[in-house]
Write a structure and sequence with these properties.
The complex is a heterodimer. By secondary structure, chain A is an alpha/beta fold. Chain A is built from twelve helices and 14 strands. In chain A, helix 6 links the parallel strand 6 and strand 7. Chain B is 38% helix and 21% strand. Chain B has six helices and six strands. Classes of the chains: A alpha/beta, B alpha/beta.
């Protein structure tokens, strides 16, 4: 660990990516993630082998990512909700071609151009694939600037490990906020060699031509390919689930929240404990794969769950699937760029506590 | 201990810097801190504000919607944020540019002639540091020394010669807030 610095989430993510060996960044401006490309444009030219390119559109940027990833490079793009929608076609191709890359989404209010303020309304899009076809992406949701740094670095390793894009999903607040950061010293884990990368084939170079492609005309071959992808996803579900639990052991009321909302829910939980209400918090860190285990465990003894999101209710579906009808699952959300307050969450749980009596 | 600040003015007055210095200094003092700017389709000379939270606990929301401490550098910010303040809160306002008093009887309001004091010291651009001195005097969350350390790190070697005038501005602001 280095020295503590006060950094903006967006800038910290960009620096963390470079530290983790990201040498190609392709992007297109959109609020509230602009400090990522801005930082990259300043820093990348000073890094050996570093390339920053502002593309002519989001569609172009994600296809540049496709190209660099196909050549075996560590590559990243970032955007915010409407821009991420534009990238979906490319993301689907990248998954189909089994290429690793990191995509950052600093989510803003939607639908459409929406607002530029923080939101979490891209949960469905992020966790259900997003583009066309049957696929998944690992989705990492930091709730502090420090965690954004750590998860960004891990995202590159996970992408390489599984040959699949990894999405870091923040929101306007995580991107814009400054917090103390200790930049960890990045140590690359042991990862499979990128023997599949298209790095320039010459006759007699001793290997097969590398073909980067997502087209499988023969249905039986495509079905086989899809089964292979889903075997990978099964491993991810088994091995990559991450979450944080606080005070769930004796909790009557369990709040489930991620990212920015989890910070506020944590303050609410403490306030409720002060008032004598046994509240707990489960914070999914991976949104996909979704951490079912701690929720199932809490459903054994908790009276009810409250999912809090900056949306009209998306993750709540996954919480309900995990709880599987055992206990009531309530929802509280603010949307359009409005962040829920501690007071609002406390009131929700107090009402639930009254009803449970 | 948790201190929440809302610092508002117009772009160019250095309100974001006041917040960053508060946060940086408190961070070096070992506290948890967050700094959150208003962001949006802003323009030069338009409104600017930031929220700073300093705490010995992990920080929940970095937003400050009902400020217990408001630092107000211009009149539109006074009109906008005085009604949102917490009961019993503390407002420090720049009386050089604000010719009214806050329309609240349940808060403590302290007028600081930031621009006037800065001009007397010979550098009108240090009006924000006058205000930072007043904040330090009234809240005690950080010291002038730690604010100066944070400013030194922010300025870098190129602007080091500006440190003495900024210190003088902070000290004058602290004196005015006594």
């Amino acid at each position: 660990m280095g020295q503590k610095m006060l950094m903006k989430g967006n800038e910290a993510i960009a620096e963390a990516a470079i530290q983790a060996g990201c040498r190609f960044f392709f992007g297109y401006p959109i609020t509230p993630q602009n400090q990522i490309p801005e930082y990259m444009s300043k820093r990348m030219p000073k890094v050996e082998g570093g390339c920053f390119l502002q593309a002519e559109s989001e569609v172009a940027a994600i296809n540049m990512v496709y190209g660099a990833a196909g050549a075996g490079a560590r590559v990243m793009t970032s955007s915010s909700s409407p821009g991420i929608s534009l990238k979906q076609e490319g993301i689907s191709y990248i998954v189909g071609a089994e290429l690793p890359c990191v995509i950052v989404n600093m989510v803003r209010g939607g639908p459409g151009l929406g607002s530029i303020q923080p939101a979490q309304s891209d949960y469905y899009q992020s966790t259900r694939g997003g583009g066309h076809g049957d696929y998944r992406m690992l989705v990492l949701a930091p709730s502090s600037v420090q965690e954004a740094v750590e998860l960004t670095q891990q995202a590159f390793d996970l992408a390489d490990k599984y040959r699949n894009p990894v999405l870091v999903m923040g929101d306007g607040l995580i991107g814009q906020m400054m917090e103390p950061v200790e930049m960890p010293e990045y140590v690359k884990p042991e990862l499979p060699e990128k023997t599949w990368a298209a790095t320039g084939w010459k006759p007699g170079c001793g290997r097969e031509r590398a073909v980067i492609n997502s087209l499988y005309i023969d249905p039986s071959v495509l079905e086989q390919h899809n089964r292979k992808l889903f075997a990978k996803y099964a491993v991810m579900e088994r091995e990559e689930c991450r979450w944080q639990e606080e005070m769930t052991d004796d909790a009557d009321f369990v709040i489930v929240a991620y990212g920015t909302t989890a910070r506020i829910a944590r303050s609410a939980m403490r306030k409720l404990r002060d008032k004598g209400i046994k509240a707990g918090l489960i914070r999914p860190i991976t949104l996909w794969p979704f951490p079912n285990a701690p929720i199932q465990k809490a459903a054994e003894h908790a009276k009810a769950f409250l999912t809090v999101e900056m949306s009209m209710g998306q993750m709540v579906d996954d919480v309900r699937l995990a709880v599987n009808g055992k206990k009531p699952v309530e929802f509280y959300g603010r949307t359009g760029g409005i962040v829920p307050t501690v007071r609002e969450i406390v009131e929700q749980i107090e009402n639930m506590a009254k009803e449970a009596k | 201990m948790e201190a929440q600040f809302l610092i508002a003015g117009f772009g160019g007055q250095g309100v974001l810097l006041i917040g960053q210095l508060l946060a940086k200094a408190a961070m070096h003092d070992g506290m948890n801190v967050s700094w959150m700017p208003s962001y949006g389709p802003e323009m030069r000379g338009g409104e600017a504000n930031c929220a700073v939270v300093i705490s010995d606990e992990p920080i929940g929301s970095p937003l400050v919607t009902e400020p217990p401490i408001a630092v107000i550098m211009n009149k539109p910010s006074m009109l906008k944020f005085a009604p949102t303040m917490e009961q019993g809160g503390l407002m420090l306002y720049n009386s050089s540019l604000i010719d009214i008093e806050p329309d609240r009887k349940d808060i403590t309001a302290v007028a600081i002639d930031c621009n006037g004091i800065a001009e007397k010291l010979g550098n009108a651009r240090t009006a924000n540091m006058v205000m930072l001195g007043a904040i330090i005097q009234r809240t005690g969350v950080i010291s002038i020394d730690s604010a100066m350390e944070a400013l030194k790190a922010t300025f870098g070697p190129k602007k080091e010669h500006l440190l003495p005038i900024n210190r003088a501005a902070m000290e004058a602001g602290a004196e005015a807030a006594k």
